[in-house]
Amino acid sequence: MPFLDHRRPATARRSAWKALAFTVLAVAAARPARAAGPVAPSGFTASPSTYSVSWFWIDNSTTEAGFRVVVATTGFNISGDLPSNTTTWLQSSLTPNWRVGPLAVVAFNGAGVSTSAPVTVHTLALVPGAPSIIAVSTGSIAAAWPSGGNPAGTSFTSQLSTDPAFSIIVQSTQSVALGTSFPGLSPATTYYLRVNAQNGDLVSSAYAATTSTMTNSGPSPAAPSGLTASPTLNSITWRWIDNSSDETGFRVVTGTGGIVSGDLAVNTTYWDQVSLAPNTPYGSYFAEAFNAGGTGRSSGLTNYTLADNPSSLNIAGTTATAVSINWAGGANPAGTLFKAEISADPTFTVITATAQTTALATTFSGLSAATSYYVRVQAINGDGVGTGYINAGPAFTQLFSHTQNALATGGVNNAVTLLIAPSTLNSDFAVSINADPIAAPISSPNLPDKIAQANTKAVSDASLSGIVDNKLVEINIFDGLNQSIGGVLNKSAEITFRFSHNGGIVDAAGMPIRAKTLAIYMLNERDNLWVKLPGSRVNMIDNSVSAPTPHFSVFTLMGQVDLDLSTAYAYPVPFRPSRGDSRITFTNLAQAATIRIFTVSGKLVRKLDVNDGTGALDWDVRNSDGADIASGVYFYLIESQTDRKKGKLIIIR
Fold first, then answer.
1. Cα separation, 93 vs 575, whole angstroms
2. Which of 32, 335, 381, 480 has the least CB density, counted as fewest CB within 10 Å?
3. pLDDT (tens digit, 9 = 90+) per residue, 257-298?
4. What are the CA-CA distances from residue 70 to residues 52, 75, 112 (Å)?
């Protein structure tokens, strides 16, 4: 720079330096100052109610663009952007005694954000239901109360007093149970009981309505003994021994003190319980003597009513070595045990075989060929008491001629038929169609394991439905000596499964599938694998599936599952109850799928299963606890075995 030339006089050079410095300072002063972030808010506090929390803070900034209330651990904005100078926000649609937080309040502007200290709070607990007295003696009281809508884990405080104003507390308990007892009390004394609830911050609700009772004044009667039960189909007579001489009466009660008989007279020793269901347990019941001094209770007893007689015993099918039967279960509940017997003697002097099952059908195998058999069935109740027998027969085991068409039927409800043309086999034969190769395999004891392995492999194939209900059979061919005829047939036999459907939908292992996709599969016993029979064809007119088979094994019916989710979506979005929206519908779903709804922070709100085959599901916009979900943005994930679909939901309440 010429004006800084060292050849110039020193005084001139110093003047030039000063001029340059002033110029630099002037330029720097002319530049705008860099903006600063807002000052963090302070005094972040919460004021909870039962279903909401009011949040308050002190605005320490003059430069904020606004405020947000956020999840302290993730920064997720739950309040939305609030205007500048805001110092409060109401969080609503919460549930009682619910942990909220940790939350923080954030001041923000274009230069950044500043965050307060985090705060966690619980909403207030609801007032519990009024307590009720469930047991009284000369020296104790037992009570119970409803939760009043509070969630599990809520703590309750119960107080007992001889003063209705509770100026003196005799006893006090605190627990999460919905009942308590107070021992060590005075006889013939009136006590008052009140209960309240505490939230997670130990803030108490108001007390529920006060209950009072008087302890008994004298000794309680001697307990009855020898409680017995005499059941019929629809009633039970309960009997006991009266061991007391000072009772006011008797009752039959439950273990929790519930009275099932009403008050019975002095010296009563029995009670008839009527209008009961067959083969159903009743109890545990106790015979109880009572007077002003208290109660004396017998030991407890549970007893079943008798089972109803089965009916409509039917010979469902025969082969050279097997007889299949089925029957109606009467009025008995599911799970009732039935005993079936078969004999060559119509008087059943010698029982050839016995089967016990909760199903309504069974097959007797290993029988003699060309023999007449008789069958009978009874039902057995839960205490092991049987009904009378119903009988049917005779049923003849027989051989088919290998020179004629042979048509055999079997399986559950005779839903399977096998057509064997002349010369398919080289000698006369019998056909066994076993309806339960898992519980009662015929050809090999290893068959259940092979079927299980094949099923496992089929499950891993997401395109298969699983076995159609009651459509699993084992087919074997026997000669006149009851020896198995194995090997490849001279020509294929024709196997047919009949099925039922509802609007073209068939139930397969709990999964709805489309009937038109059904096919017959044969068990490859070497590789333990289900193999589709070529030529399987569906006839929707007579509801059947048929296929040729070159040899006999285990057969089943399976179908293809529609698992595509590419066009699935949800509506309405946004969801606005103010315009009449009452549900969100997921549509174009797979036949079987799972829907999960999450908050933005990833918390699971609701899980929904789709398996009715309709392709649609309505959601009531409530969480897993049944509460309306709050306004905000949510995400859904729909998954089938082979596909998935994501989407966003907006709730505006």
1. 16
2. 32
3. 789 999 999 999 999 999 999 999 999 999 999 998 888 899
4. 16, 5, 15
The three-class DSSP label of residue 169 is coil
Please tell me whether the peptide bond between 284 and the residue prior to it is cis, using omega within 30 degrees of 0.
Answer: yes
What is the identity of the amino acid at 495? I
d(CA 611, CA 619): 14
Q: Which amino acid is at 68?
A: R
Q: What DSSP designation does 39 have?
A: P
List, for residues 360-405, the tens digit of each pLDDT value: 999 999 987 656 678 999 999 999 999 999 998 767 677 778 898 9
Chain length of the chain: 653
* Nearest residue to 637 (alpha-carbon basis) of 592, 614, 601, 604: 604
In sequence order, the 6+-apart residues with CB closer than 8 A to the CB of 514 are 504, 505, 506, 559, 560, 562, 591, 613
Q: How far is CA 490 from CA 422, 423, 470, 549, in A?
A: 10, 7, 30, 11
Whether omega before 550 lies within 30 degrees of 0, making that bond cis, reads no
Q: Are 70 and 85 in contact (CB under 8 A)?
A: no
> Which of 31-40, 247-256, 565-574 comes out lowest in average pLDDT?
31-40
